[in-house]
Amino acid sequence: MSQNSEQSFARVLTVKDGLAVAVGMVIGAGILRTPGVVAGYLGDPWVILGVWVLGGIVAGLSTLLLAEMAAALPEAGGKYVYAREAWGPVMGFVAGWAEMLVGRGFSGAAKAVVIAEYIRILTGGQGSIPLLAGAVVLGFFFLHTQGLKASTTFQNVTTVIKVCVVIGIAGAGIWAGDLLGIGAGDTKSMVMEGAWTSRFSAAYLAVAFAYYGWEDAAKMAEEIKNPGKALPNILLKGVLAVAVLYLLMNLSFLAVLSPEEMSGSELVAQDAISGVFGSAAGTIVVLASLLILISSLNVNFLGLPRVAYGLASHGLAPRPFSRVDAKGTPRNALYFITAWIGLLAVTGSFEKIIQYMMMVSISVDTMVLLGFFRLRMKRPDLARPFRAFGYPWIPMLTIILYLAILAILVMTQPQLAIGGGLMIGSLVVAGLINERINRRRQKV
Q1: 112 domain-assigned
Q2: Residue 225 belongs to domain with CATH number
Q3: pLDDT tens string 183-199
Q4: What is the 3-state secondary structure (H, E, C) of the chain?
Q5: pTM of the prediction?
């Protein structure tokens, strides 16, 4: 089969593969790079732990709603599918392109930047971060031209290693540190600028970035065996595993380091392990962290071309994005994703990338989750192999949490809100134009 031929995806992925994608996507740059950012904003150990717990609660509640929609609509593309079915093609366009360009595009770039930072740590500060980040992106492009089997095998192996590394780091910190001493130190010496609500909202954006991607396995719904049962299983187990690992990691960091020592660190795990076991152990942590990041970035390259494929299949993206080559890769979509992530990686800084990413992503996710109620009313007869429990109260609580978080972000981060609003507004305009073009084509 030629590269330019079109074919559908084969259902070859198992629950194990899906869990590798879910856990592999989420555990990466967030838990490695953001603990220092969060500590710098908040200062108090118990508040730091609290914001990580809040992030896990929000992700878990969201997963219940997304699991029902994913099981009922097991199509490639994930959240854009649910927005399209609930609100129509324009909102489907907005959700899909926001996910592709901002949600996953920005996160892929952030991971490439952090990988470059850690390579510089290992080489004693040698090399240019933009050039190293660009080289990382190209490496992943060549891996994914080898097809789905190569990329999922790589993901399964690296995810197992990643979970073992995370448990090892968390266990070492908890064993060597002082859990009972958390919160006993003096945090008043930290100088933290800005009002508490503004600092909390900035910290939450960092935590939300760390959790983001719990639903990524849903993008590969057309390739998962028995998706009606498998997808909820993957999504719920995946987010639970991530939340537990994140809490253990932060407990281990705070058992060894004070918030002041964590503040601003590019790799808190290295600082924690070096302080207890020496610099050689710290170097091992840097190498392990690189492996974690490589596994996580791999999922961006797995999922994003499939979002582009799903959009193109429904006339919401250029038709060539729907072409799948003989190795099961949406090759044209992969070209586009590589170019976009590479451009962001060589021009952006980590913290700004994740702040704008999460402002847009939380806004769009609110619209997607509201689609849960819309689909219950609009398509009551839709087969739902999994139903979110606690309806309507738990789904309503989820929406209230999202709206409250959005309100706090808009009030405390006005510049980010304006920038995010402009991005979303541009996507709405583009979606309206695309819908008009599609209608004209249908008339012809």
Answers
A1: yes
A2: 1.20.1740.10
A3: 655 555 555 666 888 88
A4: CCCCCCCCCCCCECHHHHHHHHHHHHCCHHHHHHHHHHHHHHCCHHHHHHHHHHHHHHHHHHHHHHHHHHHHCCCCCCHHHHHHHHHCHHHHHHHHHHHHHHHHHHHHHHHHHHHHHHHHHHCCCCCCHHHHHHHHHHHHHHHHCCCHHHHHHHHHHHHHHHHHHHHHHHHHHHHHCCHHHCCCCCCCCCCCCCCHHHHHHHHHHHHHHHHCCCCHHHHHHHHECCHHHHHHHHHHHHHHHHHHHHHHHHHHHHHHCCHHHHCCCCCHHHHHHHHHHCHHHHHHHHHHHHHHHHHHHHHHHHHHHHHHHHHHHCCCCCHHHHCCCCCCCCHHHHHHHHHHHHHHHHHCCHHHHHHHHHHHHHHHHHHHHHHHHHHHHHCCCCCCCCCCCCCCHHHHHHHHHHHHHHHHHHHHCHHHHHHHHHHHHHHHHHHHHHHHHHHHHHHC
A5: 0.82
